[in-house]
Amino acid sequence: MIKGIEIPYGCYWSTPFVRWQGSFSHLHSLRFAAQVTKQELSKRDVDARTLDYGVLGMTRPEKGSFYGLPYFSGLAGLEHIGGPTLSQACATGARAILAAVQEISSGLSYCAIAITCDRTSNGPHIYYPKPEGSGGTGDSEDFILDNMACDPLGQHSMTLTAENVASKYKIDTEAQHEVVLCREEQYKLALKNHQEFQRRYMTLPFDVPDPKFKKTIKQINGDEGFRNSNLDELSSLRPVLEGGTVTFGGQTYPCDGNAGVIVGTEDLARELTLDPSVRIRLLGFGLSRTELAFMPEAPLRATDIALKQANLHRTSIDAVKTHNPFAVNDIVLSKEMNFDIYKINNYGCSLVYGHPNAPTGMRGTIELIEELVLKGGGTGLFAGCAAGDTAMSIILRVDC
Q1: Half-sphere exposure of 340 toward its Cβ, with a 13 Å CA cutoff?
Q2: Cα 75 from Cα 210, distance rounded (Å)
Q3: What's the predicted TM-score (pTM) here?
Q4: How many angstroms from the chain centroid is the CA of residue 374?
C-alpha cells in the first residue's frame, strides 16, 4: 500500500472539454495548459516555490514540445522545476499522477505538479524521411486521424477492439445504447444549479484566449459539444462495422482541453489543502495490457492490480469512475467486477463529454474525488483503457 502521499483537497482543476474543431482548436495545447496552470495556482494562493517537481502528460506533438516539461514550467512561472514528459494515450492522466507519486516515494520530491494537455483538433501532418524510398520519397501520417483509425500492430481500428469485446461478452447494441442514455442522465446532475458540481474544480465561465494568449476572445459556460441523445436517435444508427454492434452513438469523440493535479507529502498536503477536514490519500495503482485488439477489457486486470496494492477487495469501493471510449467498457467492468452499472460514473464521463487523450483520466480522477467528498468520504476507483490494449487504474481514499 502507498503511504504518506496525498492530494491536497481543491488543488486540482480541469478546463471544460471542447469537441474537436471547437472553441479551443486554435490554441497551442502546451502554452494553453501553462496559462491555465498559472491562473489556477494563483487562484489557490499556491506559492510556486512549494512545488519541486513536475510531470507533463501529452500525446500529440506541438511546436516546441521537444522541450516538454521545462517548456511548460517556464511558461507557467515554475522555472525552477524539471521533470519528464509522458505519453500513454488515454491512460496518460493516471500515469502522470503515478509518476508524481513515485518521485515523492523515492524521496526526490516533496510536492509535485502533474499536468496533462492535448489538442486533437488540427493534428499535425508528419513527414518521415526515407532515403531508400522510390526517388527518395518518404512516409507520412496524419498524427491524430491515422492513429485513431489504425493500430500499427494489428492494422485494425479501435472500434474493432470494442466489437471483439462485445462479441466475447455477448453485448448487443441495445445494451450499449441503454448505458449511453444512463450516462447522459448522470452527466445532467453535474449541470444542475448552474453547474454546481463542475464549479468545484472548473473555473466557469471560462475565458478562451486568442492564439497569442494576449486577450480573451470569448467565454464558454462549460463543456462544448457534449452528447445529448434520445432513444429514437440512437435506435436509428447503424453499427460502424458491417455485422457489428457498436454505433457512433455508443462511443466517445475527440476533444481539446487540459487538467492539473498537485501531489505531496502529508505535511505539504495539510499546508496546501483548501479544506483541512478533507484528506485524499492515494492507495494503489495498476497497469495492464490485454491481448491484441481487446482494449476495452484491459481495465479489468489493471483494477485487480490496484486493489491488490491497496490491500482492498472490490467490495470496499464506494464510487467508480471510468474512461469509457465505448459503452462496452462499462458493461464489461460492471459485469466482471460486480459493480452496479447504473451507479458508476455519476456526474459524467468521457463517453458523454469526450476525450482529449491525456487529460481524460485526470479529469475523471478529479470528479471521483469530488463525488466522494459529497458522499461524506469513501474509497474510489478510477479505471480506463488506452490505445495499445493497455489500461491504468487508481485507488484513492477520501476522508471527511
Answers
A1: 7
A2: 16
A3: 0.98
A4: 21
Cβ atoms of residues 164 and 241 within 8 Å? no
State the pairing for strand pair 255-265/5-6: antiparallel
Q: 263: which strand partners?
A: 112
Q: What is the DSSP string of 252-283?
A: --BEEEEEEEEEEEHHHHHHH-S-TT-EEEEE
351: phi then psi, degrees, rounded to nearest 5: -60, -30
| pLDDT of 2 | 87
User: Biggest alpha carbon distance in the chain?
Assistant: 68
Size (the chain), residues: 400
Q: Which of 25, 78, 41, 40 is nearest to 56 (CA)?
A: 78
- pLDDT tens per residue, range 230-262: 999 999 999 999 999 999 999 999 999 999 999
pLDDT at 239: 98
234-238, Cβ contacts within 8 angstroms, sequence gap of 24 or more: 234/177, 234/180, 234/181, 235/177
Residues in the chain where the model's pLDDT stays below 70: none
Cell output for 77:
512561472
Give yes or no for a contact between 330 and 322, defined as CB atoms under 8 angstroms apart.
yes
Helix (H) or strand (E) holding 371: helix 359-374
